[in-house]
Amino acid sequence: MKTKSSTKERPDSERGYSFAELLIVIALIGLFVLFGGPALADGFKAYKIRSVANNLAIDLRALRYNAVANRAPFTMTINNLTNAAPNQYSYNNVKGDAITIRLDGVDIETTSAASVTFNINGSTGATGNQTVSVSRNINSTRNDRYVYDILTTTRESRMTTRRPWTTGRNGEQGFSLVEVVIAIGVLAGVLLSICSMFILGGRQLKGGKTMTEATALTHDIMETFDKVSFASLYTTFGALATDSTKSVVSTGASNPITPWQTEISRKLDNGSATLRLDQIGGANFGNCIGIKMTVTLSWNELGRPQTVTLSTVRF
Length: 315
Prior knowledge:
With 315 residues, this protein is of the alpha+beta class. 37% of the residues lie in helices and 25% in strands.
């Protein structure tokens, strides 16, 4: 008995990918890595120096606040590029612990002050303004630099970035629909991944900047009234000696923190401040041994409520 064997050729639509098609997809991925990789790396470098600059600003403001609140001078020693490595700054916190912050990959410039000392009234006692500058080379055409004036406000330099682009022809024509669809799919996937990372990083960066500004405003409000004497602290906000607590809001009727609302509204979305006084160790403000002052700053960040609260006790 003879058996007949037959083979049936597959149609073109069911064939596997050709070598040329695979090379095209690999080339597209390579182009995105070539052009998108450096841009992504630059973004991470820029985010790092911004994060370091924000942390430095928070430490400087916190040190100034501790000097005023604890009635004792606090000093930050800055090890810039003219000093011995490593690139760092150090200080003692309110508990007396020695804190050292190393800035790996970020430079403290030689124009920065070697040390900053905050006195009990919040001033540095130096002649003229003291500055601290941090910078980092992002690439061959971009250098991000942040300068902080200790006696005034933080200023941020604006930089521009140039990105070279090249065009050319690969000498191939007549791509099939399948090849175009595959290339578009790979392109869309890579773009979506990169865009999602940039969106997430942008949100975190904006949230960190807003939190820094809110913390600074809260410090400033507290420092303003921390200079008031103990006896007149509660009367400044309209409380009586027989009261045991008193609260005022920046959006309410005219009170000592109302003037801060303009600055709060400019920097924070739907922001407002609340200051609360509570007596400690007595029945009311007239016979207490201490007064706790709490400042709370509230605002909306991308539709979510955010708050910063700081407290201090006066004896």
